[in-house]
């Protein structure tokens, strides 16, 4: 089942050019997106007052990555809820809301309870899941199967990238009736067609990331700074590292750096800064400058060709990744961090596919 790979997580990381292809199969036609599971509900979604994304763990992070593009294309406010927190607060959900539930397994207890709660409150409930016939798929009013293929490793990898792609396609479908978006839409659709092959390119960084992992093997802690489209990348990269490599790791919003985290910076704490090209690039450049001024131990992820720009003088490690459309960049940027978590785990001698204390789906409370 693992073929030439040592672990399912490794196989699933390397399978992403293929899983993304199956996710998109039959759903892109020339310059339009067809999501069979949503087409009869698009009008209702467009007329909703708010879209609420609800999920746990990696599925929540995937929704966070897709949020800016959905806001941009739909003009509808999009809010985020971790399923357990929505339930703890009994937060308001209205009939005029579209509640989008994201779950690889479709069986996560908190997500399903939040779904019951949203159904009781009369919201339109949409599912995004990898599992046909799951409780989530059955109980939602409509939805989209991500079709990433069975995911076995406890650490979710290929489901994350397929979830982002499905939610990006969902944004394209919802925003379809706006003429003003047309050029933007077409360039993203073009980017979707090319995405699997670019993911294949990024996977060639495997050896370089293994070297990076060797340099981090004994670190006590790892921070990941991101913002905009890649705030989610920071959270998800850190989740992978803590979950499988059993290393303390936190993803942080770079815009919050001066409001606390900066106090942690010294010459020993490794910090990954995501600074690929998008509208936040110059802000991330100044974050890097400030971290360098405090002699931070930096690893910068930047777009190809930007190494000397983000790190003049070569005082930090750099991971260069291909640039794609801004809203698709999280799909590219997570891959080196998935590889890093994988290699760190192997080097530290921990169980990759069955991390300590964790289950693939959390079906009990
Ligand atoms: C569907 C078929 C697919 C076929 C294609 C051809 C299934 C599972 N999918 O794919 O095999 O090749 O038509 O046109 O038979 N749904 C939910 N909640 C969820 C997920 C899905 O209610 O969380 C519903 C959808 O609204 C839809 C159905 O399940 O009614 C299937 O969804 P999906 O597989 O995404 O639809 P298609 O891509 O059209
Ligand atoms: O099956 P789900 O997507 O609902 O699972 C949600 C989380 O339990 C899951 O993403 C968890 O965070 C993963 N182990 C992360 O790799």
Automatic annotation (TrEMBL):
One of its GO terms (molecular function) is carbohydrate derivative binding. It is an enzyme of class 2 (transferase). Transmembrane segments: none annotated. It catalyses: D-fructose 6-phosphate + L-glutamine = D-glucosamine 6-phosphate + L-glutamate. The keyword Repeat applies. One of its GO terms (biological process) is UDP-N-acetylglucosamine metabolic process. Its EC number is 2.6.1.16. This is glutamine--fructose-6-phosphate transaminase (isomerizing). It comes from Spirodela intermedia. The chain holds residues 323 to 687 of 687 of the full protein.
